[in-house]
Write the structure tokens for this entry.
Amino acid sequence: MTIPAKERLLNAASKLFYQNGVHATSVEDILDEALVARQSLYLHFQSKDGLVAEFLKLRDQRWRESLHAFVKAHAGNPRQAILALFDFLQTWFSEPGFHGCAFINIAAEFSDPNHHFRLLAGEHKQHVLRYIKQLCHAAQLANPETQACRIALLMEGAIATELVTPDSDAAAQARQLAAMLLDTITLP
Amino acid sequence: MTIPAKERLLNAASKLFYQNGVHATSVEDILDEALVARQSLYLHFQSKDGLVAEFLKLRDQRWRESLHAFVKAHAGNPRQAILALFDFLQTWFSEPGFHGCAFINIAAEFSDPNHHFRLLAGEHKQHVLRYIKQLCHAAQLANPETQACRIALLMEGAIATELVTPDSDAAAQARQLAAMLLDTITLP
DNA sequence: GTTCCAATAGAACGGTTGTTCTATTAGAGA
DNA sequence: TCTCTAATAGAACAACCGTTCTATTGGAAC
């Protein structure tokens, strides 16, 4: 019935790490949010850093699952599937508490490219790119790998823009650019 | 001859804040980097936060000056001026110590959109966008304001992509997309 | 030479950080 | 009932945080 402490900890940490950043979130904050004893944290996780790593893995998993589900639900044809990526962004942006890409934010907070968190961020982006490549292949685009990189770049641009300029309708802007790209590619 | 303490402080703080983030940079770190006494910091700045604000203002000024100078030097015609934005990004990315956009990073570290740092970040992006709009007007593009937003989004996408995936040649990718956009706009 | 100001060194402040230790409690399975 | 496990409360830890205080130094302007 009651949610076990480990799960509550991970949920609380995920919320706070994403919302306020890793450095700005103290262990005390997490304990308060999760309503869990201090010792329980070190019983289930090695350290705060260990908890951060678990947060990133969970975030990667959940975010990509949401993306896949959304595209599957909103894709009539392969071309629409690619455009659905940007509709997904739009709904994501409108959610309360949106605070950009957790993995871009991690890269902003930790400068060493070889830091464990940074490697997890790189893996996340690789997984997303691989998925976009699948969609580009399915849409039978010319140079699908190149197009996938371009689509990914448009998504990154929308996410970053929405974070600093929330009233810019960045997802729709990026969607229009993607549509233009698809037209330019498929026409000749 | 010798650089005054205030300037050394601001330079050291700028380097460390940009490289490692605000939260990860301690006052002690700044003093060590600047070779300045502790009291001197509080003699020239109100607090660490005050120093952060000065860093952001200086960063905004210098970065935009570099951009303007580069475009002025590499722009044969108005269309080339727009593409030069992405050549500027490419040279920026190749500089040692590149660590993304300082203002995106600030937004990642501070969640409150009304925080002073966030407002400074918003102003920076507004200034850059205004400049891009000037270029789009000069190039006599249809719907220049809309095109400027798209160009800005492509730039954001390149910067974010380069941060997490340094081997992706993001600036060139974005430049190609911009060129396609300009062709699509100007042809009909 | 005296005054003035920028800059220095270094201790001290209260508060917070992540982590560990000790001891106790509640509930489920045997 | 006894045992095992998960979870709790709360003190304690050393280290670090941003900031302030006191006292001193060096050089330039007058």
In short: Chain A touches chain B through 46 residues (CB under 8 Å). Residues 26-28, 38-39, 41-42, 47-48 of chain A lie near DNA strand C (CB under 10 Å from a C1'). The mean pLDDT of chain A is 96. The CA atoms of residues 133 and 148 of chain A lie 5 Å apart.
